[in-house]
Amino acid sequence: MSLPPEKASELKQIIHNHLIKMNIHAKIRDVLAETVREDLDPGHSSLSEEDFLRALQCRGIVDDVMKDLHFSKHLTLPYYCSVSNYCISVLPANMDPARRYLYLQVLGGKAFLEHLQEPEPLPGQVCSTFTLYLHFRNQRFHSKPVPCACEPDLQEGFLLEIHREGLGDGSKMADATTMLSICDPVHLVLIKRDTSSETTLVSSYFLDWRTVLSSPSGKTSVAVELLGVGSECKVTAGVLNMSLDLYPPLSEILSPDIITTQQSLERQKTAEKERLFLVYAKQWWREFLEIRQANQSKLVKIFAQDENGVNRPVCSYVRVLRAGRLLESPRQAARFVSLLGLEKAPVVGGGGAGKQEQWCSLLAFLCRNKGDCEDHATLLCSLLLGFGLDAYVCVGTKPKSLAHTWVMTRGTDSTITFWESLTAHRYLHQAIDPDAPPLAPQPRPSYPYRTIGCVFNHRSFLANCQPSDAVELCSFDFHNQSQWKAMSEEAVGSVCSPGSTTSLPPLPPLCGPSLEPSAASNQLELELRYLVVEHRKDLGLATVWDDHLSYVLSSALAAYELERCTGTSCGNEEFQDAVRRAVPDGHTFKGFPIHFLHHNARRAFATCLRSPFCDEIVCCRGDHVRLAVRVRVFAYPESACAVWVMFACKYRSVL
C-alpha cells in the first residue's frame, strides 16, 4: 500500500524520535564492541553486515525496538504501523478492532481525453480542478482538488466503515455472508471546478465493492470506467484506478461465483419489481385518460431521467431527510435550498429549442452545488418531510406555459401553502369559487403558478383530474377521488421505498458548512476594499475609509438575512438611528446593499459596478468623502452561503 511522501517523512521522524528515546546508538555500540571482542576470529580482518545484524537479533535489540513501537489514534499520522517479520506495513488508522472496514484507495486517473491538450499548470497558477466525492452508508468524503489533466493525479485513500444491520449485534463483527447481503454501493461523483469557481458534473458512478469478499488477501484492484452525464451518459469520461482493502481480512472468503450469483439475483429482483410497476403505471395512465378528454394535456409526470440517463419513478427522488443540528426550522431549510444555484441541464446542439431533462441524484446535486428547479423542489420536499410536514412536489406551469416544479404543504386545518424552492418565498393558496356571483369578492392569487398536473412525495402520487388544472381553481382535497386520482401506495412503495430495489441511490446525509463565516467575511471585505481603492486610483480619486460607519452597516445585513429566512423584517429602526448618529449634520449618506451566492471578490465587485447606484457610491466625488463597506457571509450546510455586501458613503453637501 502506497504512503504519501509527507506521511512517509512523518513516519520516519516518529521512528527516529523513538530510537533516540531508547538510546539505541549506545546499545548498538555495546553490541558492536562485544561482537568484535568475542566473535571475531584472528583470521578475519573485518566484520560483515550480516554478522552484525545477526548479533543484534540474537541479543534481542530488534525485538525490543519493535515491541515498544506503537502508533495510536491520537497521533497526527493517520495510519497504524503493524510489524511482521520486522517489515513495517502501513494500514489506515482510526480503526476500531471490533468493526469491519473497507479502505478505498484512488491510485490516479487516465483517459480523460477532454483534457488531452490541457497544458501543465505553472506553480501558483489558478487552473481547473477535479474533486472526487464519495458516499457510502451514511458516510461522505471528498478528495483534495487536483489539476484537470488527461491523467489527473487523484491519489487519495478513504476509510469506509461497513455498518452492521439490525440491533443487538454490537459486539459481533460482520462476516462474509452478512457483507454479501449489504448491497449499498459506493457512490462516486466527479466534479470539475473551473478558474471562475463554476462547477460541472463530470460523472456519477455506483461502485459495487463486494468483489473484495472473494480475494484471499482481502485486497483487490479495479479500473472504474466513468461515463458522462445527461446527453453524454453513454460516452466514457475517463478511468479511475482503485484498490479495495478489507480490514481485518476475512478468515473465510467467498467464491467469485457466489458473489456473481448474488448480484444477478438482486438485479433480477429489481428488474421484476420495476416491470410490475411499469405495467401498473400504464394501466393507471389509461384509466386517468378515460376520465375526461382534457386530461391528455395535463402535465402528469410519472418517470424522470437521472444524470445517468436512467428512468426512475419521480417518487424515488423524494425521501424523508433530517438535517440534524444543521437546519433549525422548515423556513431555514427553504432558505438553504434557495441558496443552491439554478442551472438547467446543458444541451449539445438543438438550437436552444426545449431543454434537456435531467433530475439529479441528491449527492450529485449537493456536490455540484447547483441544479434545475426539480432538484431544488425534491430536496426541499425531503427536508420538509423530515420536519414532520405533509409536503408534496407539485408539477405544473408558470406564465408563458413554462414547465415548473415547486413544493406544497397541507396543514391539519386544510391550509395549503406553496413554497418556491428557488427563492424560499411562501404563498397561501385560496381557491377561487367559479360558481360565485360576478360581483362577489374573490381572492387574488399572489403566487406565480398557472397550472398543476400532479403532486407526489415519497409515498404518494396523485394526478389532477378536476375539470380545470388552473391552480387558482384547484381544490387540494386528496381524499376526493373525483378530483385527484391516486396511485396505489403499495405500488409506489414497491419501487420507491428505501431498500426496495438496488437501483435506488442511497440517501446521503447533509454535511456541515464548509466556510468559517467570520474569516470569510473579513477576507472578502479586505479584498473589496483593495478593489475599491484601485478603482478610485484609476479615476484619480483618493480613498478614505470610515471604519465606524462600516461597522454600523452590520446590523442592516443581519436584518436582511433574517428577513430572507423568516419573512419578517426587524431591526430597521436601530439601523436608521445609528446611521443618523454616524452622519454629521450637513452631510449626505448613500448606501447600496446587494446579495450574492458566492464569495469571489472580483466577480462581486464587477457585478456591483454594473449598478448605477453602486457605481455612484464607489466613484463618489465631493467634499470630505468617506467610504464604507461591510460584508457578512452566512454559512449554510454543504458549500451553500449567503453573502451580503453593503457599500456606503457620506460626504458634505455643497449647494
Task: Note down, in words, how this protein is organized.
Its main location: cytoplasm. This is Centrosomal protein of 76 kDa. The chain has 655 residues and is of the alpha+beta class. It is built from 16 helices and 25 strands. A 7-stranded antiparallel sheet has the order 19-18-17-16-20-21-22, covered by helices on one side. Strands 4, 5, 6, 8 and 9 form a 5-stranded antiparallel sheet that branches. A hairpin with a 4-residue loop joins strand 20 (451-456) and strand 21. The longest helix has 36 residues, at 256-291. The N and C termini lie far apart (78 Å). 29% of the residues are buried.
SSE topology:
Layout lengths: L4 H17 L2 H16 L9 H10 L2 H8 L10 E6 L2 E6 L8 E10 L18 E8 L2 E4 L3 E2 L7 E7 L14 H5 L5 E8 L5 E9 L11 E9 L8 E12 L8 H36 L11 E3 L5 E3 L16 H9 L2 E2 L19 H7 L1 E2 L1 H14 L3 E9 L3 E9 L5 E4 L6 E4 L21 E6 L4 E4 L19 E3 L2 H8 L20 H22 L8 H6 L1 H13 L5 H11 L4 E10 L4 H9 L2 H7 L4 E13 L5 E12 L3
Helix pairs in contact: 6-10, 7-9
